[in-house]
Amino acid sequence: MDSPEIRKIKANTTSSSDSPPVQDSPVFSYINNLSPIQPVKASHLAQGFPGLNSPPLVFTSPRINSHRNTSFLKRPQYQPLSSAEKSKTQDEAKKFLDGPVDPKITQLHMRLITDSQDCETKIRVESQQCSSSEGVDEYLADPSEVDCVDSTQSASPCLKQSNNVPETFTGSKETTLYDNKHNTGTDLGTEAKAPSEQAKEDLEGKQTFDAKPVKIIEQSDGELPYDECPNIESGLSIDNAYKREYRQHLHDQDRGGKHQDDCDHTPQSPPGRLQIVQVYENSAENVGAISKGMIGNMILHAPKARSEQGGMHRRCLQFEEAPPCATGKRDCSLSSIQEVNNSEPPSSMGESKLVKLSYADLKSTSKRQMGTPLPPRCGGNSPSTVPKPSGIGLHLNSIVNAAPLVRGTTRSIKLADHYIGVQVMKSASVMSSHLPDNVRCRSISLNMVEKDSAGPEDRDESETSIAASSAVPSSPHTVVFEGHGPTHEKRGFDAENIDDYEECKQSSPKKKRKKTSSTKDSDGTKRCNCKKTKCLKLYCDCFAAGVYCAESCACQGCFNITDYEDTVLETRQHIESRNPLAFAPKIVQHEEEIQFTPSSARHKRGCNCKKSMCLKKYCECYQANVGCSSGCRCDGCKNVYGRKGEYIPIEHGVGKDNISDKAGKERIESTFHEKLEMVATKKDILSTELYDSHNLTPLAPSFQCSDHANNVPKSPCLPTSYLPSPESDLTIISSYEKSTRSPLRHSESSDILLETSKELSDLGSYNWRVDYDNIGIVDTFSPRCDAAPTTCHITPMSDLCSMAMASSTSSKTSDWTNASQVQLCPGSHGLSSDSSLHRRSSPVTPMTRLGGTKSFQGLDFENGLYDILQDDTPEILKDSSTPIRSLKVSSPNKKRVSPPHSHNHELGASSSGALRSGRKFILKAVPSFPPLTPCIGSKGSSIIQNMSNLQDKGRKK
DNA sequence: GAGTTTGAAACT
DNA sequence: CAGTTTCAAACTC
């Protein structure tokens, strides 16, 4: 019955995934078939995703959650568990959701119902399909469906154990099957369960699944935010897949591998799923049939097809890596393997344990899991990939103000879409690296953990990860399985893991923070320490940055987690409803200033310092490394970056020199060095990402065109003209990371980068770079750059090129330029005034860029430098050039868009062909801003109410 | 590590 | 819109 239809649907979905644009139609059709309600979801998604980024993410995740929730809710079994376990977290979540807006609740319920229905239908179909185990197509389809099936994750571990499936890809197909089974077990619980569950049991021989699913369900219920709707995801295609992966990672990490969250996890689970599926098949059904060969084919095809279908490819990659990335904060482990390892520890810790997870606990666990693995994030290690995870983790740590680079990374990560792209890149790289890579990743993650883990928790994690890694080689499957299972299941799932995680979280996160007194992680991602706001107010740097809290965060009762995407989204919307610019980049270049000063970047709202004289980080302007402007209400301003009222016309190249105070320069330098370091670390991380991106990016061609960057060289404008803008940094960072990732591959790259950076600084590039940090976000977007050439402040590209040339990296300049262009393009895409948007959007473009810039890989080492330079230049360029325009165009909020550079927009109109192509591409792919405002508008009131409720609860806590 | 200071965010 | 309170980061000891 369903199977035929389902298959068709899957085919459709796959096709859709193949061609992102098409995805929607197939997905929609599929959804429609599944359940009438879904369309509504789709609408939500549509709203959220117009931009791709934040909004989409939110929507998607929430949907998924809703599905899960609904499914769970529907099921009596689940409900009981949910009520008991969820307890606090759920209550809080409910407060948020319920309290705020009844309509919302109703909607959520509807969603849940629909989702559950959809999931069920999907599950059925999938189960059938699984039996048939069609192949790549199915596999591809799986992602969307898998979301619904999250529960499979739990099972997956077992499967993995039974079957060693180092390759996530191979698992992909199987994963779908597994998911189906899993879903049936959890969600359906009734129909599909019997077969699927039996199979699972056979494989695992454990009953934990059932219990786990229940837990998950509860969590999911509480977590309304999650969107699991597979359908929607399918429609979203790449974005969804990424999100899914995130979620899965998060869930897996959180849960420690237990199942659950079928819908939610499914996306995340993909890697796990794949493995699981394989295992499942092997053990239960197809076992040999699907086999690795299939997987291999899948993988190969996926990438190829993906080139066409980007989505598919990404998904595959995502599955492996994305999850970790998704977890971002949680899993440092970049690759799925790492994730697995991470998850494994938890599972190993105590799979049997059914921990009642309150939301907070779950979240915390999820974070921890995420983070624990993420430790790699810290990553300064070559494996830098790990570091990103933190960012990737969806954690939105990155804040505009602080370290732009880091922020950028985190943002990209957090932004489901972008993040996904990044993850995909990573995953791709991982995939490319293959199992060996996985092992490496594991080792890396371990290393990262060790490094990061100052606290016992970390140690534990590291140990677990190590164990996992060790196990993996011998029996990767089992290890992976464990890890995935928990991770996929989300937090609640694995009680054992959760407990462990919780312990770790409680102790480790705080400890970590304590250890790292700084609010920033090694990765540069920000950490928050919110105690009363639940990370749902602007007080929370993470939340304010549009990023999910990471493991490293020491926040209490955090709701800024993927599990609570809905809540987060609602809250954001609510805040935005009050202040549309609340999430807009705080640092913006003033058009006035821009003309004269590259460092014209200023704090959007200005500071109100009374005692700090704008010489301490209390001052947001100072913290952002930007000068105070007329908008500041500060008293006795002594901002080294520019005092209120005094404009520091930063001449081209002058940039920092202009800085009035030597101290300011020093600071800048220090910050710059820090950034460089960050970059270096990130590069390592990024290397993988780049790698992935290369694989993934269909856009590569456009990027190659970007190579024309050389064309740009025209830009006499050198870095000096760059305006510092955190945002730009972010965007740049994301791209940078990507580019850097490939470099990272070369462990040496980081060091080299540092050296090169020094050299550059000597050359004068240093100033530029420094400014880069400050460069306004707006500028980050390339549009201007493209067009700008004429006006040119500087095309980032040209600047970059010049820089690169100067640095003696000439040989690689082309690549570098390409990279820069790529970055620029992404930046343009990013547009979104909101950081989140940038993050989300940027990742995608970067990916494409990366793909285009395969040449980079060769240059990896240089890339690192290039990346840095590019980042700088891009920022400048972005600042001066296009960001604004793009923002205006894309961002519904209009927050930043307009202010910074109207004239730039003009330039943007005339962007150069290559850049244009890239930009256009991005724009299409990423409706940058739409998400924020639109979403906000829809749910503002409810969000507010939810927020207030949550806050109240949090306070109580 | 605990406590204080600071200024933004939130609230009234 | 202004004043007050709350909050979390930054800072100090």
TrEMBL record:
Localisation: Nucleus
Biased composition (Basic and acidic residues): 85-97, 249-265, 485-494
One MF annotation (Gene Ontology) recorded for this entry: DNA-binding transcription factor activity
Record's compositionally biased regions (Low complexity): 15-27, 465-476
Compositional bias per record (Basic residues), positions renumbered to this chain: 508-517
Keywords: Nucleus
A Pfam family it matches: TCR
Biased composition (Polar residues): 162-178, 879-892, 939-951
SMART domains: CXC
Domain CRC: 524-642
Cellular component terms (Gene Ontology): nucleus
Keyword hit for Protein transport: no
Disordered as annotated region, ranges: 1-27, 68-100, 162-205, 249-271, 451-526, 827-855, 877-913, 937-957
Family statement: Belongs to the lin-54 family.
PANTHER family recorded: OS12G0605300 PROTEIN, PROTEIN TESMIN/TSO1-LIKE CXC 2
UniProt-recorded name of the protein: CRC domain-containing protein
